[in-house]
Amino acid sequence: MVGPRDEVVAALAVLAQVKDRCRTEDMRTPDVLAALVFLESRVSVKWPFAQFRRALVGYGGPDETGAAKEGRWQVVNASLNAVRRVSGLAARASRESAPVGALGVRGLADETSWTSRHCGWAS
Prior knowledge:
Elements: H1 4-21, H2 30-40, H3 47-57, H4 66-87, H5 90-97, H6 114-119
Helix pairs in contact: 1-2, 1-4, 3-4
């Protein structure tokens, strides 16, 4: 049985693929747009989703400059991190994607990040 958390994880996985492929492909696909709509409908903070969409609109095709590709990747990466945070899975996502040995552990030590404890940001 697939639960709500599994659906959120699956939608975030779709968006993670965008980060890997946005330099070389137009990622404004139905799957990506559906994942954005699904996740956005579950949270009150909307700006990361708008920022993610704006980054995708900038795809300029195969003749696009390297600087434009890198800029789009950076905005997608930052937006994806914000989407994970507002979706409540930031700590889990960073633990699962961090290589073993980075900072001596796999990702964060617990579910609460330093910024959420000290700056009042919910994770």
